[in-house]
Amino acid sequence: MIHASQGSPFYAQRFRASGIDPQRVDSIRDLDRLPVLQKSEIRAAREDMVVPGSAVVESCTSGSSGSPLIFDVCPRRLEADVAARIRAHQWFNLNPGDPMVYLWGARIEADAQDRFKTVRDWLINETLLNAFELSDERLLAYARVLLNIRPEAMYSYASTLWRLATFVSQACPELRGAVGRVAFATGECVRPDWREAIEAGLGCRVAEEYGCREGGLIAHECDKGTYHLSAENVVVEIVGDDDTPVATGCDGRIIITNLQAFGMPFIRYDTGDRGHLRHGGCACGRGLPTMGRPTGRSFEFLEASDGTRITGVSISRDLKEIPGIAHYRVVQEARDRVRVLVVRVAGDERPEIAGEVAARIRARLGESTRVELQECDELPAIASGKYRYVLNAMDEDAPGCDVVLRNA
Ligand SMILES: [Zn+2]
């Protein structure tokens, strides 16, 4: 706090205005009067947030959202994330050098696949496959690569792993079970049905890495299924709608303070995700504090006509029960208007689908909700390689409608 308030003009002003003496901050509760940091503030004041003279590089959120957040990151923070990731991978007996496949779609990393990186990857036994625009041909090629390499682990977006695993199970069951130990899923919440499908298709367990580009690696699931915080690097608070902390066990917005972000400090930053802190330890015996499974990004919650927040998981569960739907994307365009993209199972022509979808959505959001069904041959991909299934397009961080509905 002293470093941030002395170095960064933005934080100097913020501490002064809040009447907090950075010299006297001993716990996160001493920061209660410091306003929660919003993405809009970072967009407006990014240059003032950076500590002058710091070695920082520009980075941005994954690009799945309509307007990616641009921020600066210092090597210290990136190294702390790498260390936290290596430690978490060791919880699964996976060490640097064990064969690992990354199925990744972030443009910067994909473009950096130059010769140097190829050699480096070969030396450390890592393979990078591009998760952009996953067609069936590409999925088949990747399934074959996996079977050839037989990696101990995979690392990818949750929905991308799910897509690959589902494809393998349905289209080429002979290629099932190619991953030895664990699939690390990140970037979005792992839905329970995705978890089952990944485990069946890839033949390994799933462990979620929870974090965000701007905030760092926040928590990682252990071999007992508990989410342990990267407590040396990140302080996690859960706050209610009035920005005040809620009790342990209660759901709220996840706010983080990164203790390693010295170049561009992130203090009490609103991640846009929801979740809760947990009481007690874990059967694995590790002493790191724990949190519950993050329940989703704010834009994965839809708003009912009475203002209630409805999780995307419950909508997904409803639609999964309707026969004939292979893929779907539910986009809430306004409080009373929802558009549903549907890809049918091959050969299905039941006209009842539209009515069934509308009934399920109205049961959750309210009878006055207008539901428009749009059939398409393929779900349009979102640039980052993630496939969003339920989206609140009214949310500030959501991918814009032009992105999620394009070419549908
Ligand atoms: Zn544990």
Q: What's this model, at a glance?
A:
This protein is 30% helix and 25% strand.
Radius of gyration over alpha carbons?
Answer: 22 Å
The residue ranges in which pLDDT falls below 50 over 5 or more consecutive positions are none
Q: Tell me how many strands there are.
A: 20
Q: On the 0-100 scale, what is the average pLDDT?
A: 88
Helix content: 25-40%
Verbal overview:
It is built from twelve helices and 20 strands. α7 (136-149) packs across α8 and α8 packs across α9. It has an eight-stranded mixed β-sheet. Strands 10-11-12-14 form a four-stranded antiparallel β-sheet, with no helix packed on it. The protein has a four-stranded mixed β-sheet with strand order 19-18-17-20, with helices on one face. The longest helix is centred in the first third of the chain and has 16 residues, at 75-90. β5 (153-157), α8 and β6 form a beta-alpha-beta unit. With 408 residues, the chain is an alpha/beta fold. It is globular, with a radius of gyration of 22 Å. Zinc ion binds next to loops.
Name a few traits of the molecule.
12 helices; alpha/beta; 408 residues; 8-stranded mixed sheet; single chain; 20 strands
Chain-wise SSE layout:
Elements: H1 2-7, H2 9-18, H3 39-49, E1 57-60, E2 70-73, H4 75-90, E3 100-104, H5 107-111, H6 115-123, E4 126-130, H7 136-149, E5 153-157, H8 158-171, E6 182-186, H9 192-202, E7 205-212, E8 216-221, E9 227-229, E10 234-239, E11 252-258, E12 269-275, E13 290-291, E14 296-297, E15 301-303, E16 309-311, H10 312-320, E17 325-334, E18 337-344, H11 353-365, E19 370-375, E20 390-392, H12 401-404
Bound molecules: zinc ion.
Zinc ion binds next to loops.
